[in-house]
Design brief:
This protein is an all-alpha fold and 269 residues long. It has 10 helices and 2 strands, in the order H-H-E-E-H-H-H-H-H-H-H-H. Helix 5 packs antiparallel against helix 10.
Length: 269
């Protein structure tokens, strides 16, 4: 005789209702991958904040201001300071226009930058970009061209035999890199070395050969006959020693600008 289970009925009205059912657990292999992806994306959207229509990430805004505002300002500053000279007698500001050969050297230098892929031409000008972006990129490249012109104007002596010697050294370096087997590392090393050598020759060697003292020509000849002889035969113009400090800062600023120029305008890093 089987034992009968007592049927216990609950008369408590607040007791929860008991429903007979079966718990079914589905394995991982029974879950649709597409449905799982949809659920995860919905979960991410519910947790994250909605992006505003006109909002840009902060890194893109920083890159935009850096490329189209800060970088052109650096090159414009180099353009203004590259032609600045300080007079000896009154300390006046003298702005010297660049020689034609400086424009030619600057154009060749840009061609070398494009050839070395330091500046990718297709990354700066493309049909995929809008007209406004192409114009803005063109203005940035133009400021680079102007700054390069003034750097050559700063490093090449103004007249005389030193002008032709330093100009020939720049011509020889640019010509060899333009028509010989190209090497980006050799280009940067030769340009950096030549920039430094030209600065030392002009603002240390030649500046010390010229007397920077005030007074008439007869007084300077009487006090420093050797320096006046060098200034006469080499046709070296006399400027204040502050000019060398300004041009040193200009050259460093130009090199920093070249270092931070991106090969492509669409890069975010």
């Amino acid at each position: 005789m089987e034992d009968e289970k007592p049927n216990i009925e609950t008369t408590d009205p607040e007791a929860p209702e008991v429903i007979d059912g079966e718990l079914v657990l589905a394995g991982d292999d029974e879950i649709d991958p597409e449905e799982e992806t949809k659920l995860s994306s919905r979960k991410d959207e519910s947790v994250g904040f909605p992006e505003l229509p006109g909002e840009k990430p902060s890194n893109e805004n920083t890159a935009f201001y850096f490329q189209y505002i800060l970088l052109p300002l650096v090159f414009i500053t180099v353009t203004l300071l590259g032609g600045l000279r300080i007079g000896v007698e009154d300390g006046e500001f003298l702005f010297l226009r660049p020689a034609l050969i400086c424009l030619i050297y600057s154009a060749i230098l840009l061609v070398l930058f494009f050839r070395a892929k330091l500046i990718d031409l297709e990354g700066w000008f493309s049909d995929k970009f809008g007209a406004a972006k192409n114009i803005a990129n063109g203005l940035v490249i133009f400021t680079l061209f102007a700054a390069s012109t003034q750097v050559f104007n700063s490093l090449i002596p103004e007249s005389g035999l030193p002008f032709w010697i330093i100009a020939f050294c720049f011509f020889w370096t640019l010509w060899n890199n333009l028509f010989s087997e190209f090497d980006t590392r050799r280009l940067l090393q030769s340009l950096g070395g030549l920039f430094g050598l030209a600065f030392i020759v002009k603002y240390l060697l030649l500046a010390n050969l010229v007397s920077a003292e005030e007074g008439s020509w007869i007084t300077r000849v009487w006090q420093n006959p050797t320096k006046e002889a060098f200034a006469y035969f080499l046709d070296i113009r006399r400027f204040s020693s502050a000019t060398g400090y300004i041009q040193f800062f200009t050259l460093i600023l130009y090199l920093i600008g070249l270092f931070v120029v991106r090969p492509s305008s669409s890069e975010s890093k």
